[in-house]
Design brief:
By secondary structure, the protein is an alpha/beta fold. It has one domain (about 5-235). About 45% of the residues lie in helices and about 15% in strands. The protein is built from nine helices and six strands, in the order H-H-H-E-H-E-H-E-H-E-H-E-H-E-H. It has helices at about 5-15, 20-35, 50-65, 75-80, 95-100, 115-125, 140-150, 175-185, 215-230; strands at about 65-70, 90-95, 105-110, 130-135, 155-160, 195. The protein has a six-stranded parallel sheet, with helices on both faces. Strand 4, helix 7 (about 140-150) and strand 5 (about 155-160) form a beta-alpha-beta unit. Helix 8 (about 175-185) runs parallel beside helix 9. The longest helix is centred in the last third of the chain and has 18 residues, at about 215-230. The two termini are about 25 Å apart.
């Protein structure tokens, strides 16, 4: 699906939940301002050049992978405790990185920063992070990013506005789970390699972090709509 269509979905979601575009815009511009220097948070590797290098390394890793395994919030450690091929790479959606730690090496975490202590552990391990700006997570990123600077995990920035920013990307989608897939598609990954673990629309997974269950289920419905548009066979590729 074209990127413009994946971005248009964000307007549908905002309308459904009654969220203001201006708040998403403010969060994105504030975050970009914080990274608009040669040493963001005193971390040179987080500048625009360093973030571009992280993005390019991710693109290469996805191109070379035999399988691209997306790990969602309903994943269990039992699901991941299996013999994966050496060519499999893992992309964790937010707090689902907690299901992965100690079992599989995570290529990158796609997060809007509500995944709790598991995100902190991943950051301390130096796991690359795709950090997303939206209207109601400004306090989270303003608090966590200065802390994470001590561990210097490789960084990519995403947003959900119609603006074009240098060094910050709107890859489409809405939830961390579907945005992870949008990111892979944005980087040209082969959809035939995609495998989904712990992607559920029927219950709130244990790795969802801070959430209100009824609203989360509505968000998962939107996740499914996005995935249906990107990769209609995604349910058939769920492990």
């Amino acid at each position: 699906m074209e990127l413009n269509g994946l971005i248009a979905i964000q307007h549908e979601v905002r309308a459904d939940f009654g969220w203001a575009y201006g708040e998403d815009l403010q969060s994105a511009e504030r975050m970009l301002e914080c990274f608009n220097s040669e040493t963001p948070f005193s971390t040179p590797s987080w500048n625009r050049k360093g973030r571009r290098a992280t993005l390019e390394a991710l693109k290469v890793a996805l191109a070379e992978a035999e399988k691209i395994v997306f790990v969602g919030a309903a994943a269990t450690r039992t699901m991941l405790k299996r013999d994966w091929s050496e060519g499999a790479v893992f992309i964790a959606a937010d707090g689902s990185v907690g299901a992965c730690l100690g079992l599989v090496d995570v290529l990158v975490v796609v997060t809007d920063l509500d995944g709790g202590i598991h995100l902190q552990e991943a950051a301390e391990r130096g796991t690359p992070m795709v950090v997303h700006a939206h209207g109601d997570n400004q306090n989270q990123w303003a608090t966590l990013l200065p802390q994470w600077a001590a561990y210097k995990p490789p960084m990519i920035l995403t947003h959900q506005t119609d603006e074009n920013y240098g060094g910050m990307f709107n890859v489409g989608g809405f939830t961390d789970g579907d945005r992870a897939v949008c990111l892979a598609c944005f980087l040209g990954a082969d959809e035939g390699k995609f495998v989904f673990v712990g992607y559920s629309t029927e219950h709130v997974g244990e790795w969802s972090g801070r959430t209100e269950p009824a609203q989360k289920l509505r968000k998962l419905e939107w996740m499914a709509k996005v995935l249906d548009r990107i990769h209609p066979a995604w349910k058939m590729r769920t492990a």
